[in-house]
Specification:
The chain is of the alpha/beta class and 75 residues long. 24% of the residues lie in helices and 23% in strands.
């Protein structure tokens, strides 16, 4: 596949959202291009919006860490 399909993660700062991001990190077809979470996280860079830190192990994927979190209510 030449280009990866951009996908969005809702609830991205929570445990399940982080797990999805972790699983998609090196996926051959998809790339995380959009993250959304609670209004308290909206407007922050993903790495700064994680209240309890990155909990799934390893490092936050660099391309996701710099994404701006959107308000899930606006989706």
């Amino acid at each position: 596949m030449e280009k990866k399909i951009p996908v969005g993660i809702l609830g991205a700062t929570g445990m399940v959202g982080q797990q999805y991001i972790h699983l998609l990190e090196n996926h051959p077809w998809f790339r995380v291009a959009y993250v959304a979470a609670s209004p308290q996280s909206a407007g922050k860079k993903y790495k700064d919006a994680l209240k309890n830190g990155w909990i799934v192990g390893g490092e936050i994927p660099a391309d996701v860490a710099k994404l701006v979190v959107h308000d899930v209510a606006d989706v």
